[in-house]
Design brief:
The protein has 246 residues and is mainly α. The protein has one domain. Helix 6 crosses helix 8, helix 8 crosses helix 9 and helix 12 packs across helix 13. The chain is globular and about 60 Å long. It is a multi-pass membrane protein. Keywords: Cell membrane, Membrane, Transmembrane, Transmembrane helix. This is ABC transporter permease. Its main location: membrane.
């Protein structure tokens, strides 16, 4: 685990050595409550809960997580430091995992910045805190899934802007794949079994259960599998570019 921790510390420090982490945290700290208050009508629902916050959380995360992940491998390739990293006595899995957990830590800090909203609804009423805690856990898992996808696509290019666009596009597709209007549009073109399988791949549907406070092993396995698949894809792409420079 030592090589992974070394990469983790290096990557986490790199986030805070540049304005990236601070800009990300400020944007998240403003956008998340903004959606909940002004779009979701948090204080107009008459209920003491954070449903409006988590209603819009997936749409916020599918933009901000690829922005957080876009530099993970693209920057290494652009600066020519990828070969140095791969030549170090660090297994590729440790490098990919360390990078992922560093980005996930920043995402967790961003989610923690919304904790005053949780305190506020407890002050104003008696919310179901277990359900809110489950929703936060679901948001963290969803963020991890998006980060893993973003990391994989960051490994595919040396251009961070392209990595962001690809990551945001992939996360969007993963999110909307289970929405009724998408399934209805595909039902006329694909077999029923294929449409049902596509619905099962929707991150939004999996997050929805956790957002309501329902913990299911199937949902947990889905997000863990999404993270694992993203890390494996990133390692595969990085290994394919080994010795290829930019």
């Amino acid at each position: 685990m030592r090589p992974m921790l070394a990469v983790y510390r290096r990557e986490l420090a790199a986030y805070f050595e540049t304005p990236l982490a601070y800009v990300f945290l400020v944007v998240f700290a403003i956008a998340a409550p903004g959606f909940a208050w002004h779009v979701g009508g948090l204080f107009e629902t008459g209920r003491a809960d954070l449903a409006p916050l988590f209603d819009y959380m997936p749409w916020l995360l599918l933009i901000l997580m690829p922005a957080l992940a876009m530099r993970l491998w693209s920057e290494e390739r652009d600066r020519g430091t990828l070969e140095m990293l791969l030549a170090a006595p660090i297994p590729l899995w440790a490098a990919a995992s360390g990078k992922f957990f560093a980005a996930w830590t920043v995402a967790a800090i961003a989610l923690a910045l919304t904790a005053p909203m949780w305190a506020a609804v407890n002050y104003l009423g008696a919310p179901d805190n277990a359900a809110i805690a489950t929703a936060y856990g679901g948001a963290l898992l969803l963020a991890g899934g998006y980060l893993a996808v973003g990391q994989a696509l960051s490994a595919a290019t040396s251009n961070q802007v392209i990595a962001f666009v690809l990551g945001a596009g992939a996360c969007f597709l993963i999110t909307v794949s289970g929405l009724p209007f998408v399934l209805d549009a595909l039902a006329a073109r694909l077999p029923g079994a294929a449409v049902e399988a596509l619905a099962e791949l929707s991150a939004l549907a999996r997050f929805d259960s956790l957002r309501r406070g329902v913990v299911s092993a199937v949902d947990i396995v889905y997000f863990v599998s999404l993270i694992a698949a993203g890390l494996v894809a990133a390692m595969t792409l990085v290994d394919a570019h080994r010795g290829g420079g930019r």
